[in-house]
Structures are given as structure tokens and as C-alpha cells.
## 1
Amino acid sequence: MGSPRTKVEVKGFEARHYDRLMDIITLGQYGRYLQNVIAAMNIQPGDAILDLGSGTGRNICLMEQYTGPSGRLVGLDIGEEMLAQARERCKHLPHVTFIKQRIEEPLPFNEEFDHVTISFVLHGFENEDKEKIIANAYKALKPGGTFWILDYNEFDLSKKPFFIKFLFTRVECPLAAEFVALDLRSMLRQHGFQEFQEHLYARRYIRLLGAKK
């Protein structure tokens, strides 16, 4: 059930207070940051969106503002506490669904979505599971659809300041330091993705990478 090096499932206190903790860590800027990121995804009214690792549903609620009631939004997560918060947050939106599902396992979707999104989750998987997630995203997307990956950018960790090295070697999961050295575009190309675009945030440490099917 996954690598012991990963930290993709959020539980307990962190799960119950996840949104508040993110707001505190970012000095109240997290909501505005998410709005800017989602605005860059070019989501249109009526779009169908699959969110992998949907957490508390905060991202989906923001994306729904673009799709409107004619859209379809599906969130997948494995954390019961996160799913409960997401369902409560979006209970007034009948076109939003949350499902308990591991995202590295085969998914029952085939060319159904205009966008597949994943936010700060992909870096927490071993490479073989990253491959499975990317394959799931490709299969779930309609032709011409876009896979949006919000996560750490690629950079040489050895050349970064001490506090950045500390974050990636002592605070984050062990896989995060490997992720920043990964050629993600090449991995995506091997699965058929093309026409990449990127938007950089937080002094270029965070990247929204879009890849078209």
C-alpha cells in the first residue's frame, strides 16, 4: 500500500486543521495564491475536472466557480478526515463528487475530463507510482485535455540556501528532494503528453506545469 518514504495521506490534527494551518504558514496568503493558480488553468464553463488527491475540497470549490453548475467535478482522496471536510464544504454542489480512491491504482475513467489536476501530491510518490498516476491522468483526459501539476519546481538543491535544504531534507518527505531533480517533462512525454506550459510562484520554487494530451 505504497512506499514507507511517502507522506501522501494526511491524518489526525493536520487533517482536521489543514486549511487553517496552510493559512497560518503562508501568513494568510494561501487562498489568494490558490485563486491565482486556478485562474491560470483556463477552466471554462461546463468543463469536467478530475482532482487527484483532492484533500479538503478547497481547490475544487475554487474551480467550480469557473465551471459553474453545468460542470462536473470529481475529487479522489484516501483520507477519511479530508474527504469528510470536502463533502461538507461542497454539499450544496450536486455536480461535485468525492470518492475514496488511491490515485496510483487503476481508475475507472476513460476520456471523460477536460482537466486533470494534482496539487502537492505527486512529489510524495516513488517514481514507479508517479508513472501510474500520469498514465491514469492521460487515460482520464479527453483528447486535447490538460493535466495540471502544481508542485515543487525543478532546481539544484545543493545550490540553495540552508533553510531550503533543511526544508527538503528534514521537514518534507524523503521523496521531495528527489522530485526537484526529476525531469518531469520527459516522464510526461513518455506517456504521450505534449505542449507544455508553466507558471512559476514563490520565487520560482513552486510550479504549475500544464501538459496537453
Note: The mean pLDDT is 89.
## 2
Amino acid sequence: MRRGFTLIEVLIVLALIAVLSGIALVAINPARQFAQARHAQRTSHLQVILNAIGQRMADNKGIFAGSFTVNGTTYVCGPVATASTSVTSAMAGNATDETGAVGCLVPVYVPALPIDPAGAVEPQTGYEIRSHGGRITVCAPGVVDETAISDPPSPLCATR
């Protein structure tokens, strides 16, 4: 008499194959996982910058530019440019920049300007800011280099 495989044995083998193939897919494509993690961190950074700008504008009756004093320290915000301006670490603290200073955000509204998770060359932070029609847009141009996310990758921007 011939004996075959039982249903339980077949199901166990199929489950093992499914688990091993899942592990293989993750092991084969870690670049996508890291790219998605950087993408999520960039999205968070954009919101941090926009929230800081929004808080500054709320404190200043809807206007971003101007100066203010906190505990004897004067902070200066320049106007946000209509063209894309790279946010630099030199804009932190009391530094001003005619093309769109965000120096007044640090340390009052945000402890430090976020840096792109893929890395940015000093003094660049890897983010850009621009103003259009009373709205502020912050973009992460570094996401365009992330070919593991989508093909072609779309720019990551947040507007408020």
C-alpha cells in the first residue's frame, strides 16, 4: 500500500516556504526599507520646520519677517524668498540671510534645524523653503535621489 503526504504536512511545508520567501525578499531589498525610513524621517522634518514657521507667524500676527527679543537675546527673521532657498545651518541662531532667513526659529521654536537623513554637506541642511501667495512650502530635494522608493521618485514637499 502506498502512502502519500497528509494535509498537515503539505500545509507545514507551504508555511515554511512562505516564511523563507518573506525573509529572502527583505534580505534581498534592504535599500528600499532604508529609503522608506529616510522618507518617513524627511516627512517628519518638513512638519517640524513648517510647525516652527507657523508658530513664529502666529506670534507675529501672521508675518514671518522681523525681530524679537527673548531673555535679552535678539533674533532676526528675514523674509522668505519666492524662489527656492536652501536652508543652511548658518541660518540658525542670530544669523540672517537676505534670501530667506530662518535663523529666528532656532532655539526659540525648534532646538535645531533638521538635517536630511541621507546626509547633507555643511552648511546645507538638505531642505528648501519658499513663499508663494502667503503660503510657505518646505521641500526635501534629496528624496529625488532615492530610486528605491519609486521610479521616477517624486519630490517631497509640505505646504502651509
Note: The radius of gyration is 24 Å.
